[in-house]
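--- STAGE predict ---
source: upstream dedup step, 1 unique chain passed
mode: sequence only
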Amino acid sequence: MSNKISEMEESEDFPYCIWYPETAAEETYRALAARYPQMKYLVGGACAVAGYVNLFHELDLLPESHIVEEARDNQQWEIYEAIMKPELRYNAMDDCTRTVFDKPEIKTKFAKPPDSDAEIGDLLSFRRRAYFDITEDDWVDEYDSKEPRFVKDDVSHLLYTHLPSDLPTMDKDLLIQTAAYYGDIDRQIVEVRSKKQLTPRFIMNNDLSCTKPETRHLPYCIWYPSVPHPSTCLELIRRASSMKPAVARVCILADYPETWDKVDPDPDLNLMRDA
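--- STAGE serialize ---
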């Protein structure tokens, strides 16, 4: 950012954020991308912040989702439109781990969450990996950063509807924390093989849109980490009578005696133990 390019050899020598709190000159970024091609996506992010349109096109990058967010936040609409025009966008950068992938992935591809133990480690390691320290400086600023330019429109509907492929500029921590609390990975469109794992979460959230007469692989555990409403339980049995044993356990664990009487299940060992 001071228009000086250091010699970098080891992986830990390469920075991630090279545009905050200030941007370098366009020629500096051009020389950086030429000397270290592995940093071209980071240079693209800087172009989106500083408005270096010519350099951005010279880099010939895949349409990258993080770069388009920077362009949108900084009102660099020519770069924004250039990335949004293609039907597919890619993830080449990861703000959480501050890394650039060797092979960018399609943005909408569903991926397994990383192992929590491997990600967190000890406190120091966690602080170094934390997504809110994207500038990699452990918050040494001597001044307060400006508030991000979030949209002022009501985005509360994003808390309970399917998420669009392209989110508006908003405080995404709200979505992340809410999804973590409810386990709502099912609000994204995912591959068919994941539906078996997602159906119980729909039921526990009182959403039976995934439970139909033709639904296969109906779940048994529908009471943890939350329990469905009694009316949901009764409607579930109406739609799929084979769910009666699972609903009976919900009635015991959630203390729904009236619903239990309506369900009138056949006693079994599991129900006796739960009771």
